[in-house]
């Protein structure tokens, strides 16, 4: 069953990759219209999920994430599909062109990755985001939602499947799998599935990474750090750190560790930042050299510096130099997003070059690590991988490339290194 | 032990990534000089490996690959290091720049992947190639050679380690592991090692892929196909297919499957190609519709169409249309390099867009799939991955990217979507 789903997705992907931008974008436009037309049905299904969530006493924050009816969420979901369809085509961009020899031309073009398996929890609007990103980037997608949003998911799946019937996009390009199918079996289909994108809890992501040979794009932990340099503007430091910690503490781009230059600790000016955090309701886990018995202060454990709190808690310690800050972050952070607060450009440049993370910031909140804020329209997730796509992943992170070589009967044996005498020209062409 | 090696490599990588192109290139120049100065010692060690190989009755082709002394191999190895040092710097290239808002600027820059673990068999000159590519691209590398080239490997390692002492490149950036350490333990160091690159037999690659959570770049099989269209120039087809099969049958870019349009079979013109193959000593494994009892012809098994022969054998069948050829190749090829021979541009474009492989060729030999021939100087291998690097992998395949965000105290909470009212400008900047 899982094999058939994956194989159908692969076949659909080989058709989808040959469609024009117009064909892919038109299908998205039709999906947007279809969703809008079915608004009442989808919201009715959503209410059923909400009722079940309340009956099952799920957490208030989870129920809030499930709800599609509030704050214009449904309409902005539909608008999001249109936004993606209006983005520049990420496919068939020529990124390298070389004349190897007379009449033998090499080009490198962007192309879809192939088949994506996307596994997500709760938030049902993700279905529309991901469907849009997948079709626009020419990738077939198998979507597997969480059981909490099952009814909403099924109602939206029905619309999307129906709409695709009348478009150039093969129907199997988007397959919405309800919870009864086993994810475990899909994770074994490495012949047909090219990339797995999990969106959800650390446990979900870690579990998927442990159980598949298919490349996984995403992140388990978001352990972001902010280093407050001796040359920091402390007012900026307060604003940035309070925003990074409290704007959305459950977000992966929230700050979890704050490092102070020891000079700030010696003259007591770090207290201004700690005070601002306490006033915002944050509990500071202070390392021993900083610890004083104050309200909302606890003595930090060593493990707090490798911990994603996802709550109004932050680990705090002092370092002697920017180099020590860089070493600490490269060892403890999850390579997501880290920031320096300083007015000293040379120190900032050292930090920007030395940190080994997907995002390195200077004097601004780590909360900016987000596809919408980066101007990508939307994102399929944030990657802490060190290869392929890093940071917020939009359309560009969903494409790879391939090489075309166009000749006129050329054979390798005529060239030096393979038995012949001809020498390659390797002339760079304008793209 | 393995953990310490990996950790040291990681630490070295965080220094190496901050060095200038001049510092990295100068180190390569010094390595080249060091190798040249030690030519006699290295060739003496190489003779020891050759003698052992003869005593152990290794195959003639393996002994030939071991030999560094013939055909100017040693000198071209040294020149290769210099060639890489003279290539354009692949690091710190700005590939995206967006003003998110006044004074809040996002840039995306290329950066090293981090730590590479490179495992290779026999050919000792690979050490110099890979050391050059790793240092130039700012990556630390752990190199593990095969036991057949142990003495050569140790002699070269001694030189490289000694030379690095006097350069800006940390000594631990290149660690050469002799065969006594266990690869298995290194494959578990996924906290510190970012990418594994195996170069060797299918068994080696498959074994590594089975035994690590670290991304693996490379290919196990090279099953390349050539489709001869009804509008093919048969003289070109003969030249291309004979070169692709016989120029180096053990190469991963050699052709293993030939598909003929059925019209060519009906009028018997495919016989011209088969005859040329037979004259070149090739055994044709013909599917039943083509099979005639002729010399050097055998009836193909179904499995022959998913087989990397690595010998003077080729699987041959007929297809009714170019679409059928594309379907066959997308299902059976190893996504390495596939080719169409035709004079019809529309058919060629359909094939070029429809094939799901790292290289898709029109009227030229699959043997061109090679980093040197593509103009990359040299390569660390050929990737059939669908994400990150595909095809021949040179410097560009050894870099990833990261985002810098430079602000002046901006916080997310001031912007729409995070509680505030400001709207992002998302102004594209010239790169």
From TrEMBL, chains A, B:
<protein>
    <recommendedName>
        <fullName>glutamate-5-semialdehyde dehydrogenase</fullName>
        <ecNumber>1.2.1.41</ecNumber>
    </recommendedName>
</protein>
<dbReference type="InterPro" id="IPR020593">
    <property type="entry name" value="G-glutamylP_reductase_CS"/>
</dbReference>
<dbReference type="GO" id="GO:0004350">
    <property type="term" value="F:glutamate-5-semialdehyde dehydrogenase activity"/>
</dbReference>
<dbReference type="GO" id="GO:0050661">
    <property type="term" value="F:NADP binding"/>
</dbReference>
<comment type="function">
    <text>Catalyzes the NADPH dependent reduction of L-gamma-glutamyl 5-phosphate into L-glutamate 5-semialdehyde and phosphate. The product spontaneously undergoes cyclization to form 1-pyrroline-5-carboxylate.</text>
</comment>
<dbReference type="GO" id="GO:0008652">
    <property type="term" value="P:amino acid biosynthetic process"/>
</dbReference>
<dbReference type="InterPro" id="IPR016163">
    <property type="entry name" value="Ald_DH_C"/>
</dbReference>
<keyword id="KW-0028">Amino-acid biosynthesis</keyword>
<dbReference type="InterPro" id="IPR012134">
    <property type="entry name" value="Glu-5-SA_DH"/>
</dbReference>
<keyword id="KW-0521">NADP</keyword>
<keyword id="KW-0560">Oxidoreductase</keyword>
<dbReference type="InterPro" id="IPR000965">
    <property type="entry name" value="GPR_dom"/>
</dbReference>
<dbReference type="InterPro" id="IPR016161">
    <property type="entry name" value="Ald_DH/histidinol_DH"/>
</dbReference>
<dbReference type="InterPro" id="IPR015590">
    <property type="entry name" value="Aldehyde_DH_dom"/>
</dbReference>
<dbReference type="InterPro" id="IPR016162">
    <property type="entry name" value="Ald_DH_N"/>
</dbReference>
<keyword id="KW-0641">Proline biosynthesis</keyword>
<feature type="domain" description="Aldehyde dehydrogenase">
    <location>
        <begin position="4"/>
        <end position="279"/>
    </location>
</feature>
<comment type="pathway">
    <text>Amino-acid biosynthesis; L-proline biosynthesis; L-glutamate 5-semialdehyde from L-glutamate: step 2/2.</text>
</comment>
<comment type="similarity">
    <text>Belongs to the gamma-glutamyl phosphate reductase family.</text>
</comment>
<dbReference type="Pfam" id="PF00171">
    <property type="entry name" value="Aldedh"/>
</dbReference>
């Amino acid at each position: 069953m899982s094999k058939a789903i994956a194989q159908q997705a692969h076949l659909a992907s080989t058709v989808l990759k040959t469609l024009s931008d117009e064909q892919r974008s038109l299908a998205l436009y039709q999906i947007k219209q279809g969703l809008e037309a079915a608004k009442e049905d989808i919201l009715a299904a959503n209410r059923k999920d909400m009722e079940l969530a309340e009956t099952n006493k799920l957490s208030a924050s989870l129920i809030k994430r499930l709800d599609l009816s509030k704050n214009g969420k449904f309409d902005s979901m539909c608008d999001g599909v249109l936004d993606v369809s209006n983005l520049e085509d990420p496919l068939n961009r020529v990124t390298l062109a070389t004349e190897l020899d007379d009449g033998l031309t090499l080009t490198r073009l962007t192309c879809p990755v192939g088949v994506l398996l996307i596994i997500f929890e709760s938030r049902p609007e993700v279905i529309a985001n991901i469907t849009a990103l997948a079709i626009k980037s020419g990738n077939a997608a198998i979507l597997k939602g969480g059981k909490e949003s099952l009814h909403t998911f099924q109602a939206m799946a029905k619309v999307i499947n129906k709409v695709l019937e009348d478009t150039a996009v093969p129907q199997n390009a988007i397959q919405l799998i309800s919870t009864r199918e086993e994810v475990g079996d899909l994770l074994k289909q490495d012949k047909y599935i090219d990339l797995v994108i999990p969106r959800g809890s650390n446990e979900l992501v870690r579990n998927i990474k442990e159980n598949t040979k298919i490349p996984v794009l995403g992140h388990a932990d978001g352990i972001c750090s902010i280093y407050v340099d001796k040359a920091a503007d402390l007012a900026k430091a307060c604003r940035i750190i309070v925003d990074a910690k409290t704007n959305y503490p459950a977000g992966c781009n929230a700050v979890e560790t704050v490092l102070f230059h020891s000079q700030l600790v010696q003259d007591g000016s770090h207290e201004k930042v700690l005070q601002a955090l306490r006033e915002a309701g944050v509990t500071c886990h202070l390392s021993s050299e900083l610890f004083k018995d104050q309200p909302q202060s606890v003595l930090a454990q060593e493990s707090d510096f490798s911990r994603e709190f996802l709550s109004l808690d932050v680990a705090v310690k002092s370092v002697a130099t920017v180099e020590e800050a860089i070493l600490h972050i490269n060892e403890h952070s999850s390579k997501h997003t880290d920031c320096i607060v300083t007015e000293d450009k040379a120190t900032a440049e050292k930090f920007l070059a030395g940190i080994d993370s997907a995002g390195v910031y200077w004097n601004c909140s780590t909360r900016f690590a987000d596809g919408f804020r980066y101007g990508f329209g939307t994102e399929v997730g944030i990657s802490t991988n060190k290869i392929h796509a890093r940071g917020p992943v939009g359309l560009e992170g969903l494409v790879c490339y391939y090489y075309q070589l166009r000749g006129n009967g050329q054979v390798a044996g005529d060239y030096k290194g393979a038995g012949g005498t001809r020498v390659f020209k390797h002339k760079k062409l304008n793209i």
